[in-house]
Description:
Blueprint: H1 5-16, H2 21-30, H3 37-63
Amino acid sequence: xxxxxxxxxxxxxxxxxxxxxxxxxxxxxxxxxxxxxxxxxxxxxxxxxxxxxxxxxxxxxxxx
Length: 64
């Protein structure tokens, strides 16, 4: 997948822990640079959804 430089920098900030995946998603949606970046945006959205699901599941299991 090809990302342009500004989006590559956003991804690097997520990996380094400087910004959250949600913040990265917002930045990337505000600055679409290529068709390829939408694949990464979709992956981020899926990852955020799965993290929320995992947290909810953990809460439910902990309550048992």
